[in-house]
Specification:
The protein has about 150 residues and is an alpha+beta fold. The chain is built from 5 helices and 6 strands; from the N terminus they run H-H-E-E-H-H-E-E-H-E-E. Helix content is about 35%, strand content about 35%. The two termini are about 25 Å apart.
Amino acid sequence: MDLEGLAKGSEAIAFNAMIGVTTTKAEPGHFEVMLPSRPDLLNHIDSIHAVPILAPAEMASGMSVASALEDLMAEGIVPIAKSMRVRYRKPARGDLTAVPALDPALVERAKAEARATGRADFEVPVEIRNPAGEVVAEVVVEWAVRRTG
């Protein structure tokens, strides 16, 4: 899979481009995404608003999942974000980085299930970290893997 192409394509999606997310790490099964702190993303307490914090979590987990499921996608089985949960830990100040933790064993189970039944669901935890490396939010993205057509 063209990891750089996946990153550039995700960054070019209109919403992602509007908020300025960029890929800071691109490895098979692991992507990290940075959301820059900008005045137009700040809330009433001068921290990044709650909603933009979710975008890098979805993007980082999505690219991680897509790269880990490359062989399934070639078979017409695709991942789709199904739900997200978030727990805010502290005010989000400064550029934020989304760091997903995609479990390889979970990916292998999902691949086997999707091949057998045409569907699988699994979750990817994502930490949102500030420039000091402190976790400001914990996000869980649930992915639905489905056969198309």
